[in-house]
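Q: Could you fold this chain for me?
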Amino acid sequence: MSHTAHIPSHRKPRRSSSKLALRAGVAGGVLSTIAVAAATGSANAEPVTETIEMPTLTSDLSAAVAQSAEATQQVALDLELQAREDAAAAKAAKTAKVAKAEADRKAEAKKKAEAKKRAEADAKDRASRSSERTTLSASASTSNATGSAATVVAFLKAQLGDAYVMGGTGPNSWDCSGLVQAAFKTVGVDLPRVSGDQSVAGTQVGTSNLQVGDILYWGGAGSAYHVGVYIGDGKYLDAANPSKGVVIQDLSGYPASGAVRVL
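A: Sure. Below is the predicted structure, expressed as structure tokens.
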């Protein structure tokens, strides 16, 4: 006998054919009953008078929905892009405004600094001219000028520092003969307008015997090209040229050709 004969088998026992037949018959009867009931119910049921149709999602509708979604997304992207551009433009405008304000501030500061510098230079120049005129006035007081000659010299010294301008007759710019004519007019002496005529307007005197108030000339008598006035101590005052203006000069540096005396 086999050594496993005493172990019970795990296989399900086979059903007999009679039991299977019985179960089949019962099942068939139940199905027949259900079929008869269904037929009877159909015969007694009310007829259906309304049909409900469910919507069908066609391919055209699907495409329209997809297109609408795409358009909505594009609008959103456009709005976002526009918002970014607006923000960038606003930032650029603000930066430009700040830069302009800073540039204007620097320009104004530079303008004020230049104006201050010019004012200081003008003040310095005026102070220098005032000091020079004071010194010259003190020097004149020690000279031998008296009466009309002193008046002429005082007028001439008051014009020191004025500009030389060809044809100028004052009050702030002169040429040589215009200055001499204006100076002698203060004492009632009417001189001709040009240098050549002024060089023969009075008594000819030698340059070695000059007096304060004598008119000095350069060039020939009657054809002189420049004139000035002797103020004493070997010096004369004239409207020299555009680079010097009205100044006092030493005769030793630029000796005159002759002189005339009108006072």
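A (continued): The CA atoms of residues 160 and 246 lie 5 Å apart.
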